[in-house]
TrEMBL record:
InterPro entries: AB_hydrolase_fold (IPR029058), TEII (IPR012223), Thioesterase (IPR001031)
Name recorded for this polypeptide: Thioesterase
Domain Thioesterase intervals: 17-237
Top-level division of the source organism's lineage: Bacteria
PANTHER family: S-ACYL FATTY ACID SYNTHASE THIOESTERASE, MEDIUM CHAIN (PTHR11487:SF0), THIOESTERASE (PTHR11487)
Membership in a protein family: Belongs to the thioesterase family.
Biological process according to GO: lipid biosynthetic process
Amino acid sequence: MTNGTIGGRASDQAPITLFCFAHAGAGASAYRPWTASAPFRVVPVQYPGREERLGEAPVPDISRLAGLAETEVISRIDGRYALFGHSMGAMVAYELAHRIRVRDMPQPAALIVSGRQPPHHPSRLVAVSHLDDAALVREMAAMGGTPAEVWDHPELVELLLPILRADFRACETWQPTAGFQLDIPIHVFSGADDDHVLVERLGDWQRHTVRGCTVSLFPGGHFYLPAARTDVIARIAALLANRV
């Protein structure tokens, strides 16, 4: 791993920053509860088309999302940093790590991926981006990643549907970067009962790095993060402190 100096300060002297990427349909606010309790700096990266970027068009392409994130992340690095992404966010973080891999700059301390199959494994999700609005709402309500009360407010549903459609289109059409291994550790997180992954094969993320790969399981399904937040943050802190 490359060490470097950013803004005139040695990277090892700065608190580590965790850049966070949300799941499909979500925005940066998914990670804002982390900021008060994490012993590291939490920087949620906002996708176009939601929250304070609502006026922008959603981007239905993982590679383009990673390219947009690259500009923001590089501008906000101050010392050691790592990347964390859940579900669609894991795809974006993975592609971003590959973009940074070829840059002459300090590399992330680690890539932490959550709720996502290894890139060389086929997705376990059924395609939904082509569904009509009513069917897409039914699928999303059943999946459980959006607060149930949202579906009772037509004006919120109207705002959310283009985001969901673009995000799931991005996930369904993702062509992972292949043929190159990262030179940073990959840490894999998952709910023990996540039906979006094959938990017993999450260790296959090892294929995508020349460094170490760990797997950490937490109680819950695909959307385990809110309930497990305290344990997840503690595990991230331990992994980053050990620099494994």
